[in-house]
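Students often ask why inverse folding is considered easier than folding. One informal answer: many sequences map to the same fold, so there is more than one right answer. In these notes we will look at a single instance of the problem. The structure comes first.
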């Protein structure tokens, strides 16, 4: 869509009819004063707005207001996704509904979370770059070396181990986990 051919439309916000409106561009205005509301960001980086009625103030995320006003109700368990992954782009055509799992797997979400947690993606593998990670060693029950793991998380995922059992083995509380002996490097 060409931005210069798109017309901004305003609609009343449900529950705030005649008081506040939201546009298909993601802007919010006070109807009585005819002023555009200043948006702020919440802790997760989404635009939010405070709306007051009868002396009570409520906070809403703008992307949800836009979706509910122009598309329809958001069913329980569903999330509003930003198609371009820009949390501040609340144009109605940039929003769609997804399950939480679909939203997590959307676009570069996994890579961004991995980076934030000290991980980097190389191909389909995650490599630990966190300096606090503790590499571990895997041995057979006879004491033969098998492999070094960047951290316990990878061994747990690759071998289907129980996290608590591996932790107890690594801290000397049990002798083995998953049919192997384990120790920190």
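Output (designed amino acids):
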């Amino acid at each position: 869509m060409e931005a210069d051919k798109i017309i901004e439309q305003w609609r009343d916000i449900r529950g705030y009819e005649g008081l506040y409106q939201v546009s298909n561009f993601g802007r919010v205005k006070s109807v009585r004063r005819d002023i555009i509301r200043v948006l702020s960001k919440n802790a997760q980086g989404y635009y939010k707005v405070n709306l007051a009625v009868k002396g009570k103030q409520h906070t809403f995320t703008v992307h949800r207001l836009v979706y509910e006003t122009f598309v329809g109700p958001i069913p329980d368990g569903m999330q509003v996704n930003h198609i371009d992954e820009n949390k501040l782009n609340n144009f109605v055509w940039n929003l769609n509904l997804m399950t939480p799992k679909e939203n997590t797997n959307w676009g570069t979400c996994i890579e961004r979370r991995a980076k934030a947690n000290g991980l980097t993606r190389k191909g389909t593998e995650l490599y630990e770059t966190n300096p606090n990670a503790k590499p571990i060693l895997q041995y057979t029950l006879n004491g033969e070396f098998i492999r070094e793991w960047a951290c316990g998380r990878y061994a747990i995922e690759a071998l289907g181990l129980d996290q608590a059992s591996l932790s107890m083995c690594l801290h000397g509380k049990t002798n083995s986990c998953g049919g192997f002996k384990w120790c920190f490097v």
